[in-house]
Amino acid sequence: MDDWNDLRLVLAIVRTGSLTSAARSLGVVHSTAFRWLAALEQRLGVRLFERLPAGAYAATSAGARIAEAAERVEHETQALDRDLLGADLRLSGRLRVTCSESVAYSLLTPAVGAFRAVHPGVVVDLLIDNRALSLSRREADVAIRAARPREPALHGRKVADAAWALYAAPALLAVHGPLDPADLGAHPFVGWDADGRGVNSADWLERHVPEAAVVYRTSSVVNQMVAACAGLGVALLPCVLGDAEPRLQRALPEPLSELDRELWIVTHADLRRTARVRAFMDLVGAYLARRRDLIAGSEPAATPPG
């Protein structure tokens, strides 16, 4: 096998478990990936995947062996890529930044505006994803995460404590009365759909709010906020969203200590000296730190209208 693209195809299928998802990750259509895999198997004279029901693909021993080799090649090329980028002293070029939807909505977009005003030569690609994208695999250059980094190869700093609280429209509380922590099921709630599995706020709601009380579900935290503003139900939101929204008020006065987190800005250690990475982390990190009281839920909330 002398074509890195063939290795990438096999690795993508192993990682995603389907040809459709692998094609999407590689930026090709399904039919192209299908012909590509068929030609590769014919050229090698060996079957690389078993086709299972519902479009699933399971690697044969040969496919698994190629995927292992592909991961080693990928690791080396990514390390080389980071080394070269780490020596880049230009304050120009493209910078990939990832964060959650709520951070992008409430904090990062104006911070990027402030950064671009100082460094107009840097183009920022914002990848909004609640998953922790891999900085080692160069899925992003900089990440803003509500968790202390555990990988030894990551470098960054804490910019704030991050708190969550329960919020509702004043009109909803006027109809249903004050929220009773001992009987949350007496109020309608906005919650997560199936995509919320493993999300801390979704797990908290599942433990404390009866399923029958959840009247509206969505995978978007921002849409949960909008639904609460419309009076659909009580929503569990980051304080940086809820406290800044004048159409909402806290349904309980204090943030939920169980959901306390830390907000960090991080990059891979190999990229920390890259000029545009360093400039972004310095400027945007300082911008976020200046808003630490809002992020931590200790800044006075917006006053609801009326």
TrEMBL record:
<dbReference type="InterPro" id="IPR000847">
    <property type="entry name" value="LysR_HTH_N"/>
</dbReference>
<dbReference type="GO" id="GO:0003700">
    <property type="term" value="F:DNA-binding transcription factor activity"/>
</dbReference>
<dbReference type="InterPro" id="IPR005119">
    <property type="entry name" value="LysR_subst-bd"/>
</dbReference>
<feature type="domain" description="HTH lysR-type">
    <location>
        <begin position="1"/>
        <end position="51"/>
    </location>
</feature>
<keyword id="KW-0238">DNA-binding</keyword>
<dbReference type="InterPro" id="IPR036390">
    <property type="entry name" value="WH_DNA-bd_sf"/>
</dbReference>
<keyword id="KW-0805">Transcription regulation</keyword>
<dbReference type="Pfam" id="PF03466">
    <property type="entry name" value="LysR_substrate"/>
</dbReference>
<dbReference type="GO" id="GO:0043565">
    <property type="term" value="F:sequence-specific DNA binding"/>
</dbReference>
<comment type="similarity">
    <text>Belongs to the LysR transcriptional regulatory family.</text>
</comment>
<keyword id="KW-0804">Transcription</keyword>
<dbReference type="Pfam" id="PF00126">
    <property type="entry name" value="HTH_1"/>
</dbReference>
<dbReference type="InterPro" id="IPR036388">
    <property type="entry name" value="WH-like_DNA-bd_sf"/>
</dbReference>
<dbReference type="GO" id="GO:0006351">
    <property type="term" value="P:DNA-templated transcription"/>
</dbReference>
<dbReference type="InterPro" id="IPR058163">
    <property type="entry name" value="LysR-type_TF_proteobact-type"/>
</dbReference>
<protein>
    <submittedName>
        <fullName>LysR family transcriptional regulator</fullName>
    </submittedName>
</protein>
